[in-house]
Amino acid sequence: MIDETWQSRATVLAKQIAQVVSAELECKQLTTKLLDFTFKPRNRDAAEMGFLASPFELIFSAGYGTRFELEPLPQSKKQVLDLAWAIANGGLQERVWHRRIKFEVRLQDGEVIKGRSIYGLIQWPGKGRLVTYAPYDRPQQVLPESI
């Protein structure tokens, strides 16, 4: 049986994140069981981020290829908030090569999450390039406890 409240949980969370990080929110319903939320920063040098939500999982992504496959909401809520805060505060760094990416996300508590991904769509010629993203326009320095 599918929990039908996943859509409202995802929508409320996306609106709260957009408000906290001071970003424009775009929402698309891709299928009856898949929502796509994208956070567009005002600062052009900041990393765009977003998440895909379904009743079965949540996929959080940012930058060129930073990606986290998480549990569905509400289990992944804290992780999503932590990642969104970190990226909005300039905590994402990616090393981009032809078709692959290594990334580091520095969380509010100082923990660094490292990962890698492979993408067929990235056609980056030559040597790898380090991309360090700027903070969003004016994200709050600390996530509010009420979220």
Offer a concise description of the structure.
With 147 residues, the chain is α+β, with helices and mostly antiparallel strands. The chain has helices spanning 6-21, 77-88; strands at 23-31, 34-41, 49-53, 58-62, 66-70, 92-97, 100-106, 112-118, 129-132. The protein is 19% helix and 38% strand.
Task: Write up this protein.
The chain is α+β, with helices and mostly antiparallel strands and 147 residues long. 19% of the residues lie in helices and 38% in strands. The protein has two helices and nine strands; from the N terminus they run αβββββαββββ. A five-stranded antiparallel beta sheet has the order 1-2-3-4-5, with helices on one face. The protein has a four-stranded antiparallel beta sheet with strand order 8-7-6-9, covered by helices on one side. β7 and β8 form a beta hairpin. α1 packs parallel to α2.
Average pLDDT value?
89
Strand order of the largest sheet: 1-2-3-4-5
Rounded Rg: 15 Å
Into which percentage range does the β-strand content fall?
Answer: 35-45%
- Class based on secondary structure composition and strand pairing: alpha+beta
What is the end-to-end distance?
27 Å
**What is the tally of helical segments?**
2
Which segments are poorly predicted (pLDDT under 50) over 5 or more consecutive residues? none
Largest sheet: 5 strands, antiparallel
Proportion of residues in helical segments: 10-25%
The beta-strand count equals: 9
The SSE order reads HEEEEEHEEEE
> Shape, please?
globular
